[in-house]
Batch of 2 targets.
Target 1
Amino acid sequence: MPIKVLLADDTDLMRHAIRKLITEEKRIELVGEASNFGQAMQLIADIKPEVLLLDLHLAEKREFTAALVKSQLASVENVLAVSFSNGAEAEALAESYGAKLLLDKMKLFNQLIPAILNCSALRRQAGA
């Protein structure tokens, strides 16, 4: 059974690149895409993805406090944040949202698929 992934990124080009990476991996199913935080929240409620790939700097999300974002994302088992800036500030922001991992957008080609598959492996271990 493929891992259900929801992608939330406000850049069309980045969504296209991530979609291409994900759709080439048969163990992962891209079940939805959102270009803003409101769409992502609606899709989370409708689809119930196992993994959310969240652009850490999603423009619309800035209107929300970290606590509100974290509470909105609480129903997603695995939040993976993605960002071009991955310093201490980005790591702290990702952690405040409850993200399990912060991925560098410049290195997604090598990092993305293993990170998603690792979420599934952790879930299997917890259930064992």
Target 2
Amino acid sequence: MIQLYYLAAPEREHRFDVVFAQLDAVVTFFSLASIPSLTGFLARDKMVDQQSYILCDLDGTEWSDEHILSAVQRLRRFSAACMIFLAPPGDHTTTLYHHLAEQRVDGLVIDEGDPSGAIAAALQGDSGYMHRLAAIQRGVAEAADREVSPLRIVPGLILDVAVCGAMPRIGVTTQTVALYHYLSQLGFRPVILEREGSAWETVRELYRDKLLEMEGYTEVNGIRLASERSERFDAYIVDYGVLEPGWVKTICAADLTVLVGGVKPWELPYLAAAYNQLMEGEPRELVSLLSFASPEGMEAVKAYLGDCAALAYHPDIWTPGSDTVYRSAILPHLVRICGMG
């Protein structure tokens, strides 16, 4: 017997009743109007662990790609339930499904015509259907990649990125590594430039068995670290930890300054103070990345912060996660830095 949560607009509650009856599915319906946050819903509902599937009809929702990816990752940590997504055809669905496919989400159904057959196949774990779906996902990924123009990296260009935090334990080192991955994907040869007393001294100690000493730099779990500049690299990322007044001028002198903060009530004063300090330093390019920010929290601050984006949850910093945030928030700055804007 299939245990199923069905999330959709109220008028779609009975859309797949025939399919559910044929599969002997026990269905619990939730109106999307009552679910402002998918991640919050999955965290609060105590019966999620008992479900076989969660079918989510995304038509009409305003959840960001990052919000959806974060919800998927959270569900995988705490439940064996599988997610099936249904969305209308379009560029946004193509991009979202590309990232969900990268996260190995199998149930990605385009709501074109009558999707009942595809929904039934996904709920039955039809291997033939999954094989066809994998081919579709590869096509979707290729189409999504074509949507983003590659960055033209000017020969001889050296990129400096400074990452700082509004408060402790807000994700500065995590974002340093995420930016390293993203710059690598764009074609840069990045390295994390270490500072004395930084978090990377602790990382070195924790991963002593995974350190590789190379000529002029060190690799830890495949991430390059260096204490000085070298012709081997064309992008340097510095983790400054919590923003200190004495470092403002240096941080703002970088080609790109990244402020990492949070939007919870107790985090906002630190975020505002750090943002004001950086603005006084007149950064060349500034973007704020906000950890664990809900859609409601983003609405509260984005009018004051200029360029900002909510970060998707990504538990494994050593592997690249979704690059949606960086495409929208970081890439425009890099385009200007590279002289393309």
